[in-house]
Design a protein that fits this description.
The structure is a homodimer. Chain A is built from 21 helices and three strands. Chain A is mostly helical. Chain A folds into two domains: about 150 residues, no CATH class; about 325 residues, Neurolysin, domain 3 (Orthogonal Bundle), CATH 1.10.1370.30. Chain A has a three-stranded mixed sheet, with helices on both faces. In chain A, a hairpin with a 5-residue loop joins strand 2 and strand 3. In chain A, helix 1 crosses helix 3, helix 9 packs parallel to helix 10 and helix 17 packs across helix 21. Chain A is globular. The termini of chain A are far apart. The interface between A and B is medium-sized, with 34 and 34 residues.
Amino acid sequence: MSENYQKTFDRLCLSMRETALLRSTFSLLGWDEQTGMPPAAADYRGEQMAHLAGIIHRRRTDSQLGDWLEQLAESPLCADPHSVQGTIVRESKRQFERHRKLPEALVMELTRTAVQGQHDWQQARAKNDFSIFMPSLTKLVGLKQQEADAIGYSDCRYDALLDEYEPWETTARVKNILEGLREELVPLLQEIKNSDTTIETGCLNRNFPVEKQRRVGKEVAENIGFDFQQGRLDTTVHPFCTEIGPYDTRITTRYDENFLPTSLFGVLHESGHAIYEQGLCKEWYGLPAGETISLGIHESQSRIWENQIGRSRAFWTGYFPRLQSVFPEALRDISLESFYHAINTVTPSPIRVEADEITYNLHILIRFELEQLLLNDDVAIQDLPEAWDDKYESYLGIRPQTASEGVLQDIHWSGGAFGYFPTYALGNLYSAQFFAKSETDLGDLTTQVANGHFDPFREWLRENIHQHGQCYSAGELVERVTGEPLTHRYLIDYLRTKASEIYGL
Amino acid sequence: MSENYQKTFDRLCLSMRETALLRSTFSLLGWDEQTGMPPAAADYRGEQMAHLAGIIHRRRTDSQLGDWLEQLAESPLCADPHSVQGTIVRESKRQFERHRKLPEALVMELTRTAVQGQHDWQQARAKNDFSIFMPSLTKLVGLKQQEADAIGYSDCRYDALLDEYEPWETTARVKNILEGLREELVPLLQEIKNSDTTIETGCLNRNFPVEKQRRVGKEVAENIGFDFQQGRLDTTVHPFCTEIGPYDTRITTRYDENFLPTSLFGVLHESGHAIYEQGLCKEWYGLPAGETISLGIHESQSRIWENQIGRSRAFWTGYFPRLQSVFPEALRDISLESFYHAINTVTPSPIRVEADEITYNLHILIRFELEQLLLNDDVAIQDLPEAWDDKYESYLGIRPQTASEGVLQDIHWSGGAFGYFPTYALGNLYSAQFFAKSETDLGDLTTQVANGHFDPFREWLRENIHQHGQCYSAGELVERVTGEPLTHRYLIDYLRTKASEIYGL
């Protein structure tokens, strides 16, 4: 009997590994689309991706797979829900049930439209003209509504979409979290505004030749543990991290010759994502035990390197002299303290990816609210730019001056990713809570970081988070690692402590 | 009845177009493998490609496809064998019958081994150590023998493999052609050796910064008509051209800072291939009416731009001043005539892709003979390097000094391409014959080229060759365009005329 279960389990794994070969090929089509595909190839790329998405969807929803999962779910192999077998069966079943609800034609049409959407978005952004993007956005919102309705939900459409990125999370809980954060952050922001401290940030806007930025980025990524034997770094309009196989994780960034943080923190951020992917158990690649848990946990890994490490005084104690030696003209007259203050300055600005750690969460709140309006047809597409700008004025006190720095700044919607943004805020919460625990566990983390010894911290992440794949849900993991459920407290403490010191609150 | 045929034909086309979506995706996996894949990803890439090759093979050999083709072959739709419908059915049937003979497992294993082989070959070449490549080469030769035996042949194994690259061609005819060429070329080579003329080629070995070479390459490719909206140019160890969709043709080159011709003529060559692909009828992409005829015809299109145009006095009359302005230090003191002589110098050298137009065909003869020995087990793999060097000594009077400039110089065998090399020599013959006809048709081609007006010549190629897809076989096409069957005469005349003038024979 148990031998039979084992055979069924092996067949399941083989089938899913074959699907993973196609999924990773699909990722390559997407990576190439963003990094170097000739412009005229966009339509055909949409067809290539739609066709492959169709094949993958058929494999994922094959009734044979359902039969195997049914048999295995009650088997002794899965007695322990956190075991590799238990995880593979449980999570595969969850995905199977979700995918079965989606018609193949919808999956293909969404894929095709997303490629077209990203293409149109790029054009719209370059020409600063929202109307170029309107038709695809309209189509995408319609398709995502269909998707949500096909999946089903008890409370609101948004729940059905959020679940794809953050399993077990709900809109109501996210709303609570984001509003709770706002209640703490808006007064903190006010205190900062009222403080007498002014921080000089001009040093970040000097001239930083792109080639040198590229070299520094590569060096920093390598230092913290991104393995270039198993990855690469490219340039794109919108930075991202993607995996194309167990030994192939690729990150991208963009460069602004007159603003260093874009690529510097961008590379740290994407490297954090990549280190998570590279830290998964290769043996289970393509199966839930070898896959990342949720985008919230994924984001915690990028934010922890970008912020808790990358914007710490310790990090720059070690690395600032090197940065000065690469950019002597720009940084020769700047002290470590001035630099540290500059990269931690808090100022409402229109661009999310360049936002400080405090206002960042308000950027997310705005998107979270707007995409709910879109999905419920509570805002017309043509009114979206104004709705966007109004919210910026209301929450951040600034009004974007152009569509490119307003509603067109993010790639997500153009690729059909609605329900994705809240995972960024969740990532911030997770990262603060994980970091606090790592500090306790590792003892003198500050000294390690200042000395450029990132291995103990990275290994801590690997041991506590990466290697488990999906053996624990996000909620279970945070409790298992830190001893308590997800809470605001660590993020607020971290932000308040840092701001108090820098702004003398 | 005829309506039914039309329906069947449409179904056939739809199915083949879907297969083309996967074939072009397969090409992207291959392109990425060569251009930028992280080193550690090679094994998994082999699995991705093998799996996709399996899916493609299943689609290509589906008995439903066979039924449709059977029905259509005798239908009135195909009454005219050169019509689009006639061509699609005839050529699809030919391919179907070939693919049906190959077991899926062999196709997958060949794909996997080819990826591994290319990886090993790169390592072997970098380390100049043939033994690193031996195991994959041994395996590949064995698999290709299996392939040839599965396909079947009347005369020799080589026929079965050659047919993949040059349909309707035979080993015996190729042997005749290459030996006929040798009989004419060896005495011509001797006359050149005996002449009093010495050509100064040092100007080609000066310093040519890679970034500038890249810029010139892009400019030249664009000038002759490579459309960068539908393509790109990258750097690889071994240059190639590949298509990833109807609007996505990619070429690669390599750069030698101290030898200009590598990239200069390399880019012209690959652009010629790409212009052929870009000149196909987009409407029939993925179907034989929208595909290239044979590698021999493909090679004629690269050689015609590289040699008949790119090594002509007319071309450099127009472009040399620009080249001097890009590389003033290297070329300021060089006259147009000296440069023209330098790029047309005839000297036996060990590297095929850098060979002059006369000795080039002897390089091909060597490979053609060696791969027959390999397939017939008439040479042991470990003796291959010596066999290679011996043939170079015998045919060209030189002995390669290292494995990298000897048996390891070409990528082809590492990717399982046996039977491919003769198409290079065929391409030389076709190109000379086509070019002679284009000169007659276009009137003052020399003046057009000198003025940088490449459009009439490119359009002549498009109209006479590219747009027909596979509506004519290579043999039919050359007769249709030039009024006579393929002959040595044009190539020998062209080579002798040029050599006589330059060497004062």
